[in-house]
Amino acid sequence: MRPQKDEPNRTRITISGDRIAYPGDTGTKTGSLELVKLQLNDVLSTPQARFAGFDIKDFYLGTPLDRPEYVRIKLADIPQEFIDEYDLTRYAKDGWVYFEITKGVYGLKQAYSPNVCRNMATTNASPRQDCGATNGDQSPLSSSWTTSASNTSDNDMPSISTLHSNTTTR
Amino acid sequence: MTTDWTGSKYAGIDIEWNYVKRTCRISMNNYINTLLIKYNHPRPKKPQHALHAHREIAYGAKEQLIPDADTSPSLNEDGVKRVQGIVGSLLYYARAVDNKLLATLSVISSQQAKATKNTAHTVNQLLDYVATYPADGIVYRASNMVLAAHSDASYLSETNSRSRAGAHIFLTEDDPIPRQNGPVLSLSQIIKFVMASAAEAELAALYHTAREMVPLRNALDEMGWPQPKSPIQTDNSTAAGFIHDTIVQRRIKMIWMQGQFRFYWDKGSTNMADYHIQSIIRQPIT
Prior knowledge:
heterodimer, A: alpha+beta, disordered C terminus, B: alpha+beta, five-stranded mixed sheet, four-stranded antiparallel sheet, 10 strands, 30% helix, 20% strand, flat
């Protein structure tokens, strides 16, 4: 329950990142305080330059992963509403449902990795109207996406991003 | 996505832009208040204008000795954790917007693992100071984006015969003696090795300063601001003499960094790094 939020009732699925063996780089490239200050001086010292800030909400959620991850959830732990909506009994085996994770979810340790960020920048390369970006080729700022609720995969395994998308938008 | 066209907040830092005067002031307005509440530190009854206790100077003494080792009682585990938490929080604040705190924090952090009652006293005075000035900040002005620095050192001012190096690195014009600007990076660190003289400590400080400037020079180059030789000021004429070969000394690595830097001497009263080398070895609680 988050009474202060627009959507007070939320269910979020978290992946246990400590149980995932990801062979790539899971570090996050960050800017230093010195770089921030250089940037401020850069704006001041460039005639007519102005400074603006953009805060991207849920930046890493829904980001295509460079390799899928797999989890299983006890069927008994899933609300009947979801089981019915996605026909999860069809995928259940020995009381468990197996999911393929194809997009960023809370807890994934590679969600912030350079590979995933690169995927985001390239797969969401459409120019964004509301921030005035005219070229969305490089900047993650231009990324704009909506997670499709109908992307059950071809390999008979439900996608966790599908379920997640719906749980947060209800 | 939320959009802030005023650009008044960035990475937790509050920014006041003045595009007419081409200046900006950075501060962290609620950071100190939140910190004081978190650590349940009451506001001082009288304003505290000093970061740390004054260290008595023995005028006329043939040699300056640092105080004896701290013999006050050790803090318990909770007390040590409190000191460590406050140092961690203030260190970020100091690096971001209030570089005046760096020298004091550096001394406290060197004691925090074995914090004593004296350490807690020093921390409390520091909290009183930041409570008195909770919205201090740094002002930047427009410049030609030439990276420059002031470097300074205090010889044998720390325990175990160590010296302290300080630096004030800023962006300015490529003038013979560059004009001041707010620091993009300030250093206040204990020099690892025992220095043999004040001049050697100053040379070590110049080396530390130059080393920190190299990645900033590269970043500025990539941002489209090609860098001339970065001017670095020292207030020690012997160190300046070593660098410029007007005083012959065994060559050390730093001297060969002249390709990227321009070292010059100027009097100590204009040296902004002087602030970061003040010794604040604790005084006994009276």
